[in-house]
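The material for today's practical consists of a large collection of protein records. There is nothing in a record beyond a sequence line and a structure line. Backbone structure tokens are a discrete shorthand for how the chain folds in space. Nothing more is needed to start thinking about how sequence determines fold. As an example, a complete record with its sequence and its structure tokens follows.
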Amino acid sequence: MAQKPSPASVPALGPNASSAQRASRVRLMIFDVDGVLTDGSLYFGADGDAMKSFNSLGGHGVKMLQSIGVQTAIITGRKSGIVGARATELGVTHLYQGVENKTVALAELLEKTGISAAECGYMGDDWPDLAVMRRCGFAAAPTNAHPEVI
């Protein structure tokens, strides 16, 4: 079995690298939840429980990444049993919920996996995602993301 390269051995890509070049290096893809794996709507029942609507296409995309050996993770600001259930259903390996500072969670995740930020991708849609998106080697946003995130 091939040994994974150490983070220090992953050469940096220049600022003009294409999205395809950046994406080809991803070994760990990280997702925000609200607005990324869902449509961003939050539904609250009379008892205060939140409900979310997950898009099956997003779930299929997560499974496709896993099928080619890319690890998957979720870093989200909200904490919800629904997200935990969806992560389990999809086989997401790393789950961080209720995160106030996503860069701290990213640092923990990199330490835990031994994967460098250059080999990570992150998909987010709003301001709290920007700092992590800037640190990862590949960043993506859904079309309805905040304009500054796009």
Notes: The two ends are 38 Å apart (CA to CA). Confidence is low (pLDDT under 50) at residues 1-6.
